[in-house]
Amino acid sequence: MATEDVPTKPAVPVVGHVITDDDIGVKQGIKIQAINFNKVFKLLTDPHSTTLYDRHFHALQRLIRHYKSGLLLKDLVQAFKIINVCADRAASHSDYLQPMQELLKICSLPFLKEKSSDETVYSQIVVRVHFTIRDIKLELANTILSIYTQKPSSQKFKDQLPCSQAYNISMLEKSDVAETLVKSLSLLEQDLEVKLCLMNVLQHLSSFSKPNCDKMLSADAASRIASRMNDPDPSGRLLFRSIEILWNLIENGNREEVSRQLNSLVCLNALKDAFSERMTQVTVTMIDN
């Protein structure tokens, strides 16, 4: 029995079109071009490339350009490793100073998260800093103050969201910044400007923050500050900041530890002299009025 051949139609190819939001212009805002921080860190620290200064500065400037709107949370630890390397190099090679300051300025901006879970995933990040250069201490102080005083970001990002101010402050509390700043005060006896700047930062750090107060006390903040609270200062800000910080430590820190640190002849005499000075000023003001 003959069969009739039925003509077959040519198969229609199935094409999977993948159209992203970027292709149709749905997403608006700044696009962060990610850079491999590990490669930059290796370039700076590898014995075979440690003296390739031009390549170092090119890589650092590239980082600054790409992350000028904020650092990704996932890159925060590596970013501070690079900042610390620059700090070590800046003492002998001043060209590292400028990129380091720029990176610190970027750290004053809200950190960026790629997923809503990033704040939880990276909540245990601990950032460590160790700076000795005067200009870097000032920049670090300005960066910290910006985190405490910054307004909500109005910038829009295509693939990231800025973290809240509260989250950024919590990251500061987990770092060793408060402890480091307290320890650095002893190196600033001859530099009143920087000392007052750091005291202002410590006042912010100790306000309403038990973790910061505990870390400050671990560096003997109460005794260090009380013993030098009457150092010469025409503006009177040193004494004012010292008193405010001590009150913050008493209110938010371990009171027994504060008492222990202040229980020395040097601190008690300093507190007595400060009290006498304040009472004298009040008396003179009342007489003048």
From TrEMBL:
Q: Which Pfam families match?
A: CFA69_ARM_rpt
InterPro entries from the entry? ARM-like (IPR011989), ARM-type_fold (IPR016024), CFA69 (IPR048732), CFA69_ARM_dom (IPR048733)
Q: Which domain of life is it from?
A: Eukaryota
Q: Which GO terms describe its biological process?
A: positive regulation of flagellated sperm motility
Per UniProt, the keywords (alphabetical) are:
Cell projection, Cilium, Flagellum
List the GO cellular component terms.
non-motile cilium; sperm midpiece
Query: Which range is the signal sequence, renumbered to this chain?
Result: none
Q: Where is the Cilia- and flagella-associated protein 69 ARM repeats domain?
A: 36-282
The protein in question is named Putative cilia-and flagella-associated protein 69
